Amino acid sequence: MQTLTGVGVCAGRVIGELVSMPAPVGEPAPGLALRDEEPEAAVARLQQAAAEVKAELKARAEAATEKDAADVLKSTALMAGDKALLKNASKLITGRGLAPERALWEAASAYADQMRALGGYMAERAADIEDVRARLVARLQGLPMPGIPQRDTPFVLTAEDLAPADTATLDPEKVLALVTSGGGPQSHTAILARNLGLPAIVAARGVEAISDGTRIFVDGASGEVRTEPGLTEQALVEAWLRSAEARSAFDGHGVLADGTEVPLYANVGTPDDARTAAAAGAQGVGLLRTEFCFLGRDQEPTVEEQVEQYAAIFEAFAGKKVVVRTLDAGADKPLPFLTDTDEPNPALGVRGYRTDRSVPGVLARQLEAIARARELTGAHVWVMAPMISAAGEARDFAAMVAAAGLRVPGVMVETPSAAVTADQILRHVEFVSLGTNDLTQYTMAADRMLGSLAELNSPWQPAVLRMVGLTVEGALRAEAAGGGRRNVGVCGEAAADPALAVVLVGLGVHTLSMSPRALAAVAAVLRTVDLTTARELAQLAVDQSSAEDAAAAVRAQLPVLAELGL
Ligand code: PEP
Ligand code: MG
Known about the structure:
By secondary structure, the chain is α/β, with parallel strands linked by helices. It contains 24 helices and 16 strands.
């Protein structure tokens, strides 16, 4: 038996067959010419490959249960049979004697470039064309189809990391668990796994060496992968399944054993997410990632389009709190209309609130749209800006929020500078929300996307916990200086870890926001501790000298975690 350990990012235990993501399709060599094949035969082979790819995608679109996935597959199928594309590629075969894969590559690349140059909606099609290009070239070269492998029976998917486009077609009915050799615990792949409730491990070095078809055991809480699972692993899986009920029921009320209220909110990105979150009992939305409504858009959405999206989300939470974050473009979430992709160090560049300087107007229009959507619905809308690093930015943002007619301004604490000046920041705004994903990356100076730095990139790092503590102290000082209560929330992935949630509450955090899937487990664990215990556990964690020790020390004091398989 072989055991590998990575970083568990979503709890769950399964045993299944390993299937790895195929390697990306590379560009066929420039000038690659026909060999031993007549041009007419090569053209026929190209047509045949296109027809097969189209039929396969169409069949998958018809079988897809998710509308988004079906739409992506349908438009890719149409593109695979595009007459102009095939005609241009055929001309390169008959005119220049190119091999069909090279001809197709050139024709599709030229087509994608033209679309990009047109901008707007057309530019968004460029990525679809490149996807079709990869599929047709793979078919012509006899390579496995790119993207999530298709199997009749469920399997454990392994990959170096997943691209956002892959995740749109990931079918949670077919994928039992996700194990990546790269990626960090706060990467968007990890966030996706939590949203789907898929047991997941990142930074599992060595998993790429296990062959396809091997049966493996995956434990998304401990981060362990074992080959040749036997009776012990089977018993672990069964224990996990037995405790499922206790983990899955959230009654919509976050509270400690002593009655202290800890409202539990959801992180959402789209109207669909909001409806799912409301159905899961979320007490409100603690983080609306507005950029998720518009990822892949080449141009700024109109105010009307924005009003429609936001209103659909607010409607799912009528009468409840919805914290809207203004566009957080840049770094791992570039938006073409806001992001300068040539920056040498995007995580430290013009991202989040800073884009209001480089592309003025977008933020003001977004606030106008949020205000209009609020008027149309009954949600209690709070608005916050991402990537704030100085009190002056909070002051300017609050002025913009007021000018838009919105009432409750706040900011995210994602930088050490914001954490240590929280008292000054909270003179200008009414609440802060700790984005522990970025706060960890910036406190530890460790890129959140890098699997090799996963150990540093843990929100259990005592330095990060101290930043949380400093933020709470700053809020208390601001309250003492007058102007009423200052809410301190956490909306980073840390809030979804039930043991860490206890520590955050013990540090003085008032509200927690997470993927809806995590609500029940977090609520179940919070109910077992009172505030005094939570404070003791927070102190215990802060006093440790490593993330590992902090997590181990706290977990040892929370027997409920083992009972629930967390
Ligand atoms: C964070 O940084 O913790 C956060 C919630 O924002 P995002 O993950 O979208 O950067
Ligand atoms: Mg962030």
